[in-house]
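During the reporting period, our protein records have gained a structure token line. One record among many is quoted in full directly below:
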Amino acid sequence: MNAFAFPKGFLWGAATSAHQVEGNNVHSDWWAWEQAGRVKEASGLACDHHRRFAEDFDLAVSLGHNAHRLSVEWARIEPEEGRWDEAALAHYVEVIRALRQRHLEPIVSLHHFSSPQWLTAQGGWTHPKVVEAFARYCHRVAEALGDQVRYWVTINEPMVFLRLHYLEGLGPPGMKDMGQGLKAIQHMIRAHAAAFRLLHERRADAQVSIAAHLPVFAACKPWRPMDLWVTRLTDRIFNVALLSALTEGRWSVPGVANWTFPEARRSLDYLGVNFYGRQFLHWVRTVHGWPAANCDLGHHPLRVRERTSFGWDVHPPSFYRTLTRWSRLRLPILITENGAWMTDDARRWAFIHGHLQAVARAIRSGARVIGYCYWSLLDNFEWADGYTPRFGIVEVDYATQRRTVRDSGKRYAEVCRSNRLHLEER
């Protein structure tokens, strides 16, 4: 084995999102969705992070982190259209102050899957005025936090949001309509562009991006032409078209949509990358949705040798492929999420170590990676899957809210503190 030294100033940390950890986010559309019985369990108090954030940041510091990704909650800040909750804004000011006091670089997301109930009642991200509403919200947040925050994520995983909320109906507003989903993604691109301008007006050296979920797509049966076709089409719309819109101002998917977004051209200062594994697809007949579905990974014993407790593919070489592929954009890359639910914590550490090796090899190959945030710092509310999945390097006992650092967290801390990783020979 040999040691790899990461670049000086590399950002090491973990990520959370407001609705998943804060608790009692009562004005959120996800809260209403849960109260309506649309998921198996409600978020409730979650990790009580809204009150315990200082304790949680102390844990991050104890683990050698120098950065932390979090989100602010639009539904708390603007619980009713046009009414601002100054106490909520003051709370997030205190949160950012707590990070700065602990020398943790804040990486702040403005939208992480949840929206105010009033917005969703109006049509959510399909409503014509959503871009203006999002820009108004971003302006208020930038006024409150802008001097203390350099790294921003405007929208987390826009294409995953489209798939879960507008194609599969697994989150509010619960649609299953490709046309409405495409309308929503147009608005998200324009909203990102508006936020990009606002944040730079507030702070000239702001670093603004989205967090893009960029999996490697593979055909379930590569010898079937329709499986290959839908796999390539999915990569085109979920990966290529989105990033093209935000760098070149063009979204082009033949047979689906061709749009121009001049306001979104060059609206990424860095590329936020979320990565969890490969996705194997096959073609399906559909009327209103996307003509692709995931296949059972168990059908690929030679291609899929390990899966998480979620059943997701584990394949660090695909992470290397993603990082080197998108380094062609010539942007710094910040890994905003990468993680696994493993019932065996030793396997969680093996996942982290394998993916950090992929990062190191990508850097050696020329990718300009500037940081890595593990998902997640804490066990948390995993949306429609509730509290069963546990991604945290810190275990949370939801009955007592007691935090316990897992061994994987301690092993990851050794890398964070030393800024070095032992690479295994391949």
User: Anything to note?
Assistant: The mean pLDDT is 96. Residues 2-212+330-417 form a domain with the TIM Barrel fold (CATH 3.20.20.80). The radius of gyration is 20 Å. The chain has 13 helices and 17 strands.
